[in-house]
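anyone else get weird line breaks when pasting these?? whatever heres mine. first is seq + tokens for prot A
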Amino acid sequence: MAQPEQRAASARTGGAAAVARFLLPKIAQCVFVVWATYTVAFVLIHALPGDPVLAALSLRGGDATSTDPAELQALRERYGLDGPPWQQYLTGLVALVRGDLGISIATGQPVVDMVGRAFPNTAAVAVFALILGFVGALAFTVWAYVARLAWLRGVVTQIPPLGIATPAFLTGLVLISVFSFGLGWFPASGSTGFASIVLPGITLALPTGAIFFQVFSAAVFDAGASPFVFTANAKGLAQRTVVVRHVLRNALLPSITIIGLQIGYLAGGTAVVETVFSRDGIGRLTVDAVLARDINVVMGVVVVVSVVYAVVTLVVDGLYGVIDPRTRTRLTDGRRRPRAAVAEVAG
């Protein structure tokens, strides 16, 4: 007969195997997303006509047409743009695995350092916008759900979509006019201090919160019409308990999915906001790189954004394994099966 220690060790081994079966395909999918993004971006960028080094030199004001061919070849080798496209692709892919994103044609600095300096500024605004958008969407959803008057509920549900309908540059300009030039509460530009995050964060939070609201409110109203909520009301539970414990809790799963998608969008969708508020970040770095025809920086930003999106998606899938009872049950069964098998063998 198997000893308790043996059964416990077998259960741990079965649980680890179940978690590995759940996570390994997700990790493979994460790697595939990064590779596919790099490949598609490489093909699209290198399909553009013209020599990127000549174009960058011309935009910098130099007379590229009279540059020594040997010097041009040396510049192409320095920036990893020499050789046939397939060779550039493989060289860039191997360098990407090592964490090397190449050298900027415009500045001559490593792309990793440029992205590393810009990323914290973008992340600060994105996190603030994500929190603000989620809290706002949660507040409007609860308000619409508990509203007893049908016309009031209709009005409340029509307010958040205005965040999508209003262009981000217009929202940013209005906020700058009112809160920077008018009231002087927040700076109109710059990347220093928490105060510089507020207005760009609000500008990004409006469309983010509107998308949250669309998904979260639909999930909340679906959960509110479920039999278990009817049973909870029939038991005489307080409205607050029903909403928090039964409605919001069951509406959490689709919201987690949309949070993952929104983080991916915020990581790469800050170009307009950072340009309007003159902030240093990933978005503004991308705009400057496109204007300078600096394809190494553009490729580096695309890869970094794809990595952020893939990692966030992996974390969201992992949270599903913890929160979703159906997925948790499959993992739990994975731990129980070896124990049952040991019991059968022992019996």
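and prot B, same format (seq, then tokens)
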Amino acid sequence: MTWDTAIAKGTYKKRQRKKVLLETGIVIAIAFLLAAIIPLILPTFRLNLLGRFLSLAIVALGIDLIWGYTGLLSLGHGIFFGLGGYAFAMHLNLQLPEGQIPSFFSLYGVQELPWFWQPFHSFPFSIVAIFLIPSIVAGLFGYLLFKNRIRGVYFSIVTQAALLVFYNFFNGQQKLINGTNGLKTSTTNLFGTYQVGSDSVQLVFYIITVIAVALAYAFCRWLIGGQFGRLLIAIRDDENRVLFSGYNPTGFKVLVFAISGGLAGIAGALYTVQSGIITPQSSMEIAFSIEMVIWVAVGGRGTLVGAILGTLLVRFAQTFLSEQFPEIWLFFQGALFLIVVTVLPNGIIGWLRQDGIFYLRRWLGMDKYLATYPQIEANPEVQQEREETVEDSHQEKP
């Protein structure tokens, strides 16, 4: 390594370190604003909505990993979202006096708690299960798909078909998980004492959600900032070249799909406790999983900030439009998606990076002066050279 190369490498590392510190500071500042200031401003209902939307931003981060950075469009993330939600809802429904089981079992003649409910008595197991169960399911599912080199549109179709299978399965299990009625959490007690639906507990869950979003963002940023992230992008851009370079893309795709599924599970658990109930209709419907993709597309895929921004924008727009135009608000959502696809193919963040900064600087009057070459006739050096040429030609004449 030459001296110049070493200096350039050191300068690059310093810039990267400064960039990371700046980004960390911004994330901490936003998290502090959301956790400490916003609860003082917003009423309880709006704060609860914001908490739900922030929890959905976590699943959007996971979809951005698998779609934006790896190029695999999953239309079945509702599976992992629902699994995480059910895992925590089962724990909350077991916060009963010893010997009792959730009341819905008696409606179907079930006298003993099913075996797979037993581990959810434990709070630590439930917390781990929120991430681990969706990750394992996503990892196994991804292994079967990627080992058989299923990708592109076929991957999207298969994930959506799997979602439909899970949706029908959960709907049909009335005796085991209350089927279409789902599991209610708002009337349950956390640690057997604190009612989940009370304002104070909901505020705690909101703050936990803010922290979870910040940690999920930091984790994803760390993940894509190194060699692993560069490999994901390489798989997205040209998987065959990655294969011929000596890497096996299957393992990396399985891992990122499992991580993405785990993030969806965390999002599902946080969303469930803030919405008060989880059902197959609220978590595993096909439209809901497609909507997750729309959040990332609107914000800008391949940009983690875009995933969060898109989720919040679309969800707040849905809330506002459904309140103002309850009959036709779905048309607005469709129009928004069409605008993004046709006019902003890289989403809002992509547009800001390409053209938005330029227009913003022009609008603020901060345009840099263009360093163009002056008119050639007005250039004194050209004039001098021209005069010297003319003088030389006169001297050469007899």
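btw re prot B: The chain is about 75% helix and 0% strand. The longest strand covers residues 183-184.
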